[in-house]
Give the backbone structure.
Amino acid sequence: MPLRRWWEHAQKIAGASSVRGLGVGAEHWLQVASDVADAGGLLHTLWVNREPAGDAAVYGAYLTELGVLVAELALPAGGESVYYPGLEDIFPAASRLQRAAFDLSGVRSGDPDRRPWLNHDRPYEFVRVDGEGVHEIGVGPVHAGTIEPGHFRFSVVGEKVLRLEEHLGYVHKGLEQRFTQLPILQGHRLASRVSGDSAIAFSWAYCQALEGMSGRALPPRAAWLRAVCLELERLANHLGDLGALGNDAGFAFGLAQFSRLKEDLLRAVSAAFGRRYLFDIVVPGGVAVDVSSQAARALAEVVRTVCAEIIELRGIYDEHEGVRDRFTGAGCLAPELAARLGVLGLAGRASGQARDARVDLPCAPYTELAVAKIVQQGGDVAARVAVRFEEAQESGRLLRRLLAALPEGEHAVTVDAPAADAFGVGLIEGWRGPVLVALQAGPAGSIRRCHPHDPSWQNWPALEYAILGNIVPDFPLINKSFNLSYSGVDL
Amino acid sequence: MLKTLRKIASIGLVSELPPGPDELLRVRRALDDRIAAVLGRALCIRHVDAGSCNGCELEIQSLSNPYYNLEGCNIRFVASPRHADLLLVTGPVVKNMEAALKRVYAAAPDPKLVVALGDCGCTGGILGECPASLGRVSNVIPVDVAVPGCPPSPVRILQGIVTAISPPV
């Protein structure tokens, strides 16, 4: 059955602009997945709900050209003997999601890879590479720089990488369980801390699901201010990465200049919103802080200056032979492989995957902003740098437009807790890629289930391919060019 | 090259003066004046993320930008705990990082200082203690100075570090 037929049978789900849900039987679970794949869609996330009584359901959320399709497969009670068919042959990204879901719920997929993912009680079994001169280099979980913890196991000959295997889950902190202990009107605070660099994306996706379930429309000013925050988050992260990438290529000048620009931006954000990082700004019903017209003008002026300097610095990066040499051809992820792996967001767009939720499934105010989708075909570090340069300019354009014409009116409205068992899905294009939050209400304003998804789930496995054939000393540069989240996937 | 040099010359020096110590951040009095006098000249810091959301890390990275000019204050981040005088620990300590954090602490030479960073490091934060998380840093290793904030600003982080290496008043 073509995807369109499944879509027509599915029921509308509250939250993001085009989400539908479909209950399927075990015989159709794989069929839906392969029909989505045939139509050019991909698996965005997968999670398992387990009820105290023992019965469970597995959910697969697909990104398709029609919207987000959530397939639900109910599973009978039966402990370890209950399996659902694994999706890993159709969507490779499913493998780690299914292993994590087992660690969290005890419900297993049919995937033959049964190694734990989030559960670190036993030593991890890495795949060994044998052969003359092959040796292993283990890195982490504590790394040499100020970054998050994770373990990388390289199998190398000389300096050449034959295989990289990632082992994550070190910052697993029980986020999904913690959500169920919070009132649903407070969950946005935890959502903004799923991955601190994507605070706005996660808290907006959470609130979008919640507001959809409560049937509360967002005032235009609140939507515009959220978009201001989301683009500021994108611009700040791109500035940080562009500096760090220059530094990893041996060009300390780049780090000095871009980190200075990022600081200028953060100080302007602090002047407008009262905080440098925008945790707890997005709240149910709107935003926590209104911005005066004077502050909006001042912020727009700083954005204009920063963007003008980015253009100047891009010229310097482009002309620097050493930087060009390190960026070009390093960590190449071909478009065909990116499509097969379902690579999302910035890294996907640098490998020809033309997806951007701000364009494909826009919510207000993106419906009227005509965001330019930035796509490169190269797939190497240079392409990921180019996407960042161009997206920074596009965010600058959006910010100036948003700040110049903020609609009058309220910046927040009251939202009531949704009825028990109401279900909603939020989808926001964060700086790394599309962030999804699936939220189910419990009785009396509680959270029954909340599943946050960071696009790094899809992109971490892609890094294992991008490094192949490169040399170990290029790994920090290639890794930084993806800059994936650990906290966001360790849950 | 000319463009690069021109840019450096046109921006000039943007570094600001560091803050003084703040006794309110002090948890434990580990240092006497003599050690502080030695450590106070140059300080090597090893950062450990024990379960952070990555928010505190962004502000630690800000410390290295030209405005805060960390190395100009004779403070630098090092790649190994064996080179470190001070451990800067973020996040609640999650179960999967407990062993790594204890090993880092054991690997740092004595006398060593620990600064717990952010609301999670100070109190366990929004996560608190749960089956996957042991809560505040001082539940796992001794802490000298605790800097609250979500995330704390670079000035506040710097103040915590300066407090740790200043003799208690």
